[in-house]
Amino acid sequence: MKIRLNDDAEIVKTIREGLKARDGHCPCRREISEDTKCMCKEFRDQIADPNYEGYCHCMLFYKSLEE
Question: Which one of 10, 19, 26, 53 is most buried, counting C-beta atoms within 10 A?
Fold first, then answer.
């Protein structure tokens, strides 16, 4: 398993700006809680799934099954 940033530098820049403005909470979510603090609970759960491959909700991170 490998976690990497999105290859699209513009998406990474936009999401990082949103994270900064929201004190590290996902800019794609309305609520602010421990579950929305980046890396959000949704993506942590996806990482824990050995069969999941894909982007987190905001598309900042990508989980690859390849090493």
Answer: 26
* Tokens linked to 37: 């603090």
Q: Where are the alpha helices (DSSP H) in the chain?
A: 9-21, 41-48
CA-to-CA distance for 7 and 17, rounded, in angstroms?
Answer: 17
Query: Which residues lie below 8 Å from residue 22, measured CB to CB, with a gap of 6+?
Result: 32
Read off the pLDDT of residues 6-52 as tens digits, 9 standing for 90 and up.
999 999 999 999 999 999 999 999 999 999 999 999 999 999 999 99
Give residue limits of the domains in the chain: 2-64
Please give the model's pTM, rounded to 2 decimal places.
0.90
